[in-house]
Amino acid sequence: MKSFYTVLCITGLLLLGSSCQKYLDVVPPDVGTLDYAFRSRNEAENYLFSCYNAIQGLNDMSRSPAFTTSSELVYPLNLPGNPLNITGFSLITGTQNTNSPGLNYWDGGGNGINMWQAIRKCNTMLENIDEPADLGAAEKARWIAETKFLKAYYHYYLFRLYGPIPIVDKNLPVEATPDQVRVKRRPVDTVVNYIAGLLDQAIPDLPPSIENPAKELGRITKPAAMAIKAELLVTAASPLFNGNTDYASFRDKDGQLLFPAYDATKWQKAADACKAAIDQCEAVGLHLNNTFAAAPNVTNLPDQIRQELVFQTALTQRWDLNTELIWSLNAIWHGQEYCIPRMTQLANQNDNDNPAYFAAPISTAELFYTNNGVPIEEDKNWDYNDRYQLQDGDAANANYIKQGYTTIKAHFNRESRFYASIGFDGGIWFGNGILDGSNPHYVSARGQSSLAGPKTLQKTNITGYWPKKLANYLTVYDNGFNWTDFSMPVMRMAGLYLLYAEALNEVSGPSAECYANIDKVRNRAGLPGVVDAWAQYSRNPGKPSTKDGLRAIIHQERRIELCFEGQAGWDLRRWKELQLVLSAPLKGWSIYEDQAINYYRPKNVAIPVFGTRDYLWPISTNSLVVNSNLVQNPAW
To answer: Looking at 434, 454, 489, which one is the last position of a domain?
Structure first.
């Protein structure tokens, strides 16, 4: 497609062909070819692109711990000839182990990527960057900065999974002794300071924006690096890594403590980094997507659907036109065929292309607010106890629910992000080939005779809820697929504003600046400000006025705003809340039932198995044998 990604694809194939499962293989196997790899600017640029290769591999969401283990989505695990690698999805059912870890980013394996190999390539790039005689000084400085960012990001990825990790700042020489290769895990604060230091070195020489998207889209920029630094410092200040009593006695073999005591000043450092990143992003024109740029053939668009599309296109707008997208892993995210229900007869006839496996459990649907902007269990004007009672679509809700269609009360009077994010039985689905807002598709999901309902095991959504947000409204599934592609964000402005609000609240509790950053995101969704919403509609009106109350609000706001974007899994881990979220069975509707009264009966679709030890990934037994200086993560 674009030249940058063409090179990445080629280098990716080369790397896959030479992958190695040995622990921390830091001795370069390609010493004899380095002179060739850096003999000219063009060859060195190809090597730089190969340093990006592991980044592009992360674009496969089945490889993402945050996407597959967050409980936002469930996936049928018993499919014969499963088209996706289900390792990540199966981890919440207790399949993780030390002999062959799932999503193993230490050794590579279990659908994971060997991050140490990626780090080694970055070190090789830095060690040889002076070789090309035809490489100009300005370009050289940028390439060094990009490589240092990548090296930092790969360490950061490992840190989020494993906690205290070794630091590989330089490749070991070929003649390195066995003792030199047996590196040790470093304390959490040492790791965080090292990663932040690399980012600080990179940021000054990175470009503020990409001036030639056709050739360079995906390369790192100053705003992206600053946003990742902000996220790193928020992560380091969070309960998993800051004063975690579960790991208070965790030591290496020399007796060194690997986890720190609580340090409140880390939140101030995080807040400062968030504010600096926001200022930099806004300086180059990045901002919330507050308008909907309709395709030319969109007609009769009601305000309610337009509001949904304002939010939805903050994710699905093409990257080079998306003013909210700070950084993405790749130019294209593939997976819309797993998200779109069958809505036409031709779609049913061509259903091999449209399995629609990605299923949101009822708990995800219930995470979203009411139309008053407060949780459904808190809204004093919303009938929480009778939310599963049947109700027919009416004229007042015709832009959300098919008029006359029998569904449940839980689908009425919800915020616009609910309707933009979740596809449900009876729900309106704008797009998929019908761009006349007066006559859109709707989802018919009850029983096997319905269009979107269960067919064969391979073509069934097991909960009755689809991640509508992950489908571009211009993508059409009818007589086969006609995709309109988009990029899956690593960071967008809404997420950065909420990170800043979180850090501010942890520093000094509720404040006007904290509320303002939350309300930017809420106002885009058509909701009242957080203080007004709770004062008017919540059974707990004082909740936003306390640090604990506002913390809970911010956490839910992030989970709603960033739902299905591969963020919630990281957040729930760093908050130490994933164990609570996975403490109950994940449920869906009785999808094989034709009648509404029988369909809307919750049933278990997955029984999570998650304990304290699951917050950190295990290191494989083989790696511990090879490197006697390593210690295993607690309880594994």
So the answer is: 489
